[in-house]
Amino acid sequence: MIISQNKKTIFLILLAFAFSFLVRLIWVYQFSDMDGFKFHNEFMINTNDGYYWAEGARDILAGHHQDNDLSPIDTAAANLTAIIVKFLPFSFETVIFYMSAFFSSLVVIPIILIGRSIKSIEVGFIAALLSSIAWSYYNRTMVGYYDTDMLNIIFPTLLLWSLIWAIRTNEDKYLLFTALEIISYRWWYPQSYSLEFSFFSLILIYTIYLGVKEKSFNIQHLKFNIALLSFMMFAMMGLHGWIRFIIVVSLFIVYKYKKEIFTNYLYYILGLSILLFFITGGFDPIWGQLKGYVFKDTVSVSKDLLSLHFFTVMQTIREAGKIPFETFANRISGHTIIFIFSIIGYVWLSIKHRVMLLGLPMVGLGFLAYVGGLRFTIYAVPVLALAVAFLIVQLSNLIKNNYIKYALMSFLTILVLAPNIKHIINYKVPTVFTKNEVVVLDKLKKIASREDYVVSWWDYGYPIRYYSDVKTLSDGGKHSGSVNFPTSFALTHPQLQSAKLLRLDVEYTQKRFNIKEHNKELDKNDTKYIKWHSSNIGQMTLDYGYQDTNNFLTALQTNIKLPAKTRDIYLYLPNRMMNIFPTVDLFSNIDLMTGMKYNRPLFYISHRFKDDGKNIDLGNHIKILKTKGMVQLGNKKVRINHFAVTYYNRKGKLEKKVQTIDPNSPINIIYMKNYHQFLVLDNRLYNSTYIQLFVLEDYDKELFKPVILTPLAKVYKLKI
User: Taking the mean position of all CA atoms in its chain, how far away is CA 628?
Assistant: First the structure.
């Protein structure tokens, strides 16, 4: 029985899709009995950013949201989720948990179609199997990883397929397909500018080559490429998606039915498209992304009247940092050896099918991960999967016996899949929050108003908003140095300064929303515009009559007049913040006027320690000399100031014993018995709001009121 090419293609797509989806269910099998990963008997998601889209989808389905709550109701991911929940018989939690596994598996479609376009569907099938579960692609598209990555690779891979067919066939329909794919990609992922522009640049180089070398031999091919460039440029303009859609569809109708007229003005049309691209700001986001991920600075200078210096968040995000070569190779191909063979395969593939050089933008963006952050490796996965698949097929084709040939092909395929499947089995990533942590936020939802603010570190902003339905000062998308400074300062400084700055920051944030709303048309050079587009801390400094922010921060210890209270403020302090507390401190441990970073404070956590009766070895050359009341830091011995022990009694209430040994010492020790951990910290962090309220529950009754107290998370209400 001879199976048609179309039926064979469909069968292999379905088979590869099923493989991709089923492999992602390994996580579900591993944690099916893990009650701590479920809330209301539904699995929770395992990426912080997912709660952003979930918040938007929730509000779309509810039909309302609060002004300035930053809910992403206009985003593609939130709207697609809301549509699925509305029309399919699945719960909201089920949809957001499995959605990434379903949609990410669709990547097998364009990959198999690309294999078919180079007349080797076997290459496409093997590549589809590998790319769908490759290390980095799996990490960002597994079950529970509810984020835009579920389609972020599918769109450019579809675009690659469309461009390959456009170049090879010169068929009119691919002009429209390519333009619509760019528009759809931008709709789904607004940061797609750079990759789109890279594809455009490659087509432009090829077109120039044709114009210089082959114009007299292949004039029709040259004209088609110029038309393709025009369609791409119109689709890439910095205009609303619907406007670009209408333009490219109208342009295609003219091209289809008035091709002679279109061709006569071909160069003018291309020139117009490029001009409109720059006029509409099409290149601005591309430069912005390069500055953010490649040309990173540790300190940014605010564009306000004081020109304050802030610590940049990019320095603390792992996915934006440089990675080792082995990690880089593993994330793309699963193993360094497979990666090397993929490079060899891509060279061979590009020599035999030069059209595959169109994959260079995706490979190049993937390689940017080596200097710009591990998140980019995902882009190189499909192209290098095609490359190693091509190598496998070419080597297998050297054998004439079909049985042996396909046996070898299968064996080599299993070899490249094995390390990736092994990684999946071992990649037991937990949910963002555990059940008991979510119980706290769910309880807070019943206490706080939707207009109230819950303040915590930006890592927890999205989950807080989703579960407690409140407002936050910072989150995964709003976490610049100027935004993080007040929160960092409030968490790492004494309670009086903390409380006052919290009230100021919330009221200034809310006032900023209101003023921006009523002054949208102000010129950027207008004093009022500058005032309310500057940093909160900078504007506070000026409003209180200071020219130096350090003086203003010192004044928080005095009886300064605070703005009128318009809403309640809650401080959310999770135990999980303990591990990133030194990072939290970085954002306020800086002189805003000069950018000078202060000395790093002492903060050390020990979970593994040994008590021999006389000394407690905390590891890392740190020991507590119990009989002497001292702590040994390397070769230096220092008297202990406070030695505190905390534990929870049978009623779940925190008990503490604090002994002051030498009040003049700069070093403190806290033993958190139930957490089985020691803290070694200096006086500033010992007296910080986070340590005093979360660890010791020693709160100023004039400033804070405990609302929820659990070992995993504590919530305090600001009283001023």
Answer: 48
